[in-house]
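Hey, quick one: can you model this chain's 3D structure?
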Amino acid sequence: MNQKEPLKITLSGILCWIFGLFFILIAIGMIIEHEYFSALFWFLAAFVSLSPISNLIESKLNISVSGAVRLLVVIILLAGSFAVYDAHTSTWSSSGFSSESHSTIQYDNVSYWDWKWSTPSYIGNTKAP
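Sure thing. Here's the predicted structure for all 129 residues.
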């Protein structure tokens, strides 16, 4: 009879699953924010992190990648995602921030309220001092 190999549970395997699922959640968030190119990097980092997907890719390409190289590829993909995301979000029009240097900052998200105040003669049921 064929015996199945016992399931190996290692700390690196658990961390790969945690980070892989975390990367997928961030990629979905990037898609919601319409940052598709940045989401692509997050999905690739998730595919490299998750063992079943990376093992399938390695078997199809007939290569073997060590854990250190896998970690380096994930770091490079995340750095690429941050670089692409920062390039698209460097200008915030609502707060006046811009990647270009300007001498004046215009605040469009400020409430200019005309405050008027007066002193009351009574506070509750007692006369004010």
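One thing worth noting: The longest helix spans residues 11-32.
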